[in-house]
Specification:
Residues 1-44 form the signal peptide. It comes from Saccharothrix espanaensis (strain ATCC 51144 / DSM 44229 / JCM 9112 / NBRC 15066 / NRRL 15764). Keywords: Signal. This is Putative secreted protein. There is one protein chain. By secondary structure, the protein is of the alpha+beta class. The chain has 2 domains: 9-37; 47-112, Gamma-B Crystallin, domain 1, CATH 2.60.20.30. Helices cover 24% and strands 37% of the residues. It is elongated.
Amino acid sequence: MVRMLCGIRTGREFSAMVTRQLAAAVGVAAAVAVGLVAAPAASAAQGVLKVGDREYRNPSGCYRNTTTPLRVENRTDQVVVIFHDSRCAGERVGLVGPGSLAVSEFGGSVHVP
């Protein structure tokens, strides 16, 4: 049996080498895939959101209106959505951009992505 002559490998050695390289490549691909899937969701908006008479630092999610009319002061880095419903569902009645103030007669809640 010829082992290695001038860098040429036998069939069995070549097969073993390819198997090791394939296993390493699959391992790297799996690690990358897990990293992408397990990556945390985007964090909360940065800044302060004022809804009615309450302030929320680095807000995320749904905030119910406690005053009429709804007054939203958005000092975050995200656009927030005003909903008619008190659970951030149903009809959207407005958007409030970063650094903006809005007053909504029909606003029931505010959602921060």
